[in-house]
Amino acid sequence: MTITLGACASSGAAGATVAAALQFFAAAQCLLNEPYPRQADVTDGSHFDFIVVGGGSAGAALAARLAELPQYDVLLIEAGPDPPRETIVPGLRETLKGSRYDWNFTTVDDGYSSQALEGHRQKQPRGRMLGGSGSLNDMVYARGHPVDYEEWARVAGCAWNWTNVLPYFMRTERMTDARIINNTELMKFHGTRGEIEVSGAASTDGPNTKLLNAFREMGFKIVDDMTYPYSIGAGRFSHTIRSGRRDSSLTALLNKVHTNNLHVLKDTLVTKILIENNTAVGVQALSDGKQLHFYADKEVILSAGTFNTPKLLLLSGIGPQEILDELEIEVVQDLPVGEGLQDHVMVINFIAAENGTCERNERAQAFDVIKYLYDRTGFLSYSDSIGVYMPQNYKDPNVPYFAIYPSCVPQALITVDQCTSILGYTNETCMKLVKANEQYEIIVLPVVLLKPRSRGKVTLYSTDPLQNPKILSGTFSNSADMEEFPDAIQTALSLVNTTYFRDKAAHVVDLSPAECGREAGPARAACAARAAALPAWHAVGTAALGAVLDARLRVRGLAGLRVADASVMPAVVRGNTNAPVIMIAEKAADYIKEDHQIYV
Ligand SMILES: Cc1cc2nc3c(=O)[nH]c(=O)nc-3n(C[C@H](O)[C@H](O)[C@H](O)COP(=O)(O)OP(=O)(O)OC[C@H]3O[C@@H](n4cnc5c(N)ncnc54)[C@H](O)[C@@H]3O)c2cc1C
């Protein structure tokens, strides 16, 4: 994940103007169209072979793979509509958070963590549209580390170890990043014949080269490939961007299906799985206020994401007995649904520096629009996000434990609206940040714990299928997660002592809440980290392999029901989760074909 404050961010006036201008010109010239699948013409009570619930990163990939089998009918049901044009333009990626294309999930106030956030709640944006969160994410290509998959294999069997998941990453990947494709060692781990393009930044003129040089001065190795597992350090990420447009399992796979056996039903909310004699036989759904039923002769596959997959399972009587009893839902299967929620923990730090530090005139946004529309180039056409991986103290130096995702915001671009809507900080904290930005450029330094031990929970507020689920983040509920945070933050902030940033009069902007003022040193940093903790939007684990699912992604104790999305991860990987989710969908497609003895 990357935090993009300033340029083109959601409710900022500049961002809104750019988005509106782009919409206007693009609509006039049909430049930003995508061939989304047409709305299925299906009648209530219809039968299909497979029903996939949720057309997000996993669901779009899985439905496309199943539709490659011409003799089988596939129904994909998606709660949201086609994505709006902003999703196509990489530089407008921040404009959708908080919009009607976002589920706008929030966590409950646990009285312990994130107490400095508005309402003491963390925001958990997720895409509610075709492509799901893959239509609004930051397009960073990451996979986690081999040790993550060895951990999965311990609970789910060796089919999930690094050796056995790597070919599934490579299957979908079309690597074109120039820093990687000419390096034989790096290319041992990349695919070039898959559908989703993984590219390098079109330009590296921005401030990130300065930032990377500073991290080099701090002792970090500069690496060409942030996914290379045997040598970690600081570097530029590759992104799922093709010719200046977002690439995803929707644009690269689902949109390319032109066979009549794929039926895509949009704006339709699945409300329950229909289960007879311990077998999933179909789904109940709501569309335009009408209740509909669709039947799956072979399987129902849930790909509704980490928050909505457990919600659907619980609504259907699959979950912990005591929770279902409390909600008066008849128990179909007593399983630990919702219990393993895990996300990276993010604490954002800010450094102010004199003007000129960012070295980019972000105000030339009108010109950016013209460049983008003319030949899909310029600032809007790519992302040049960078990261710094840090190991745990006294542990393997090539296994990441924390990450820093630095970026630079020019003077007077951050607005209170953006800050509250993207970060969830209070008005008061955001005003302090905006005030600092009125005078200085701001280096944003999110420090992210990649291997948390804490677990949260997803349950229901009620049996109303229209209500979002109840999310308890569990952030810092395991005190081990705090142990090295103050040190990691200190490392990030020592950027102010590097040659370039010292010359730019860089200094820390302290936004720690008043109640941490009584503390000093690491205790103060820990207090501030706990109070301002955010999720990094990589939530997983609520229908986990080995707990809720068997090793082939089937719901334990039931026939005809499988899960394929981020919820199946037994533990969050040490990196962004989109590519791992698509890898899971690819494996699910193979399991389904094998289990039904479908040979292509
Ligand atoms: C803001 C943000 C930025 C991110 N940035 C990155 C990044 O740069 N790189 C990276 O690797 N990862 C990133 N991620 C994470 C990554 O995008 C997700 O892990 C991944 O998209 C999850 O895929 P999924 O299929 O599990 O869920 P989703 O993609 O969220 O798909 C779930 C789909 O199911 C639909 N749905 C839900 N309930 C129902 C229902 N009842 N009926 C019908 N449909 C339903 C939803 O509308 C949605 O389309 C980011 C995530 C967010 C939120």
UniProtKB/TrEMBL annotation:
PROSITE patterns: GMC_OXRED_1, GMC_OXRED_2. It comes from the Eukaryota. GO terms for molecular function: flavin adenine dinucleotide binding; oxidoreductase activity, acting on CH-OH group of donors. InterPro entries: FAD/NAD-bd_sf (IPR036188), GMC_OxRdtase (IPR012132), GMC_OxRdtase_N (IPR000172), GMC_OxRtase_C (IPR007867). Residues 127-150, 305-319 form the Glucose-methanol-choline oxidoreductase N-terminal domain. FAD binds at residues 137-140, 270, 537-538. Its cofactor is FAD. Keywords: FAD, Flavoprotein. Pfam families: GMC_oxred_C, GMC_oxred_N. Belongs to the GMC oxidoreductase family. This is Glucose-methanol-choline oxidoreductase N-terminal domain-containing protein. It comes from Heliothis virescens.
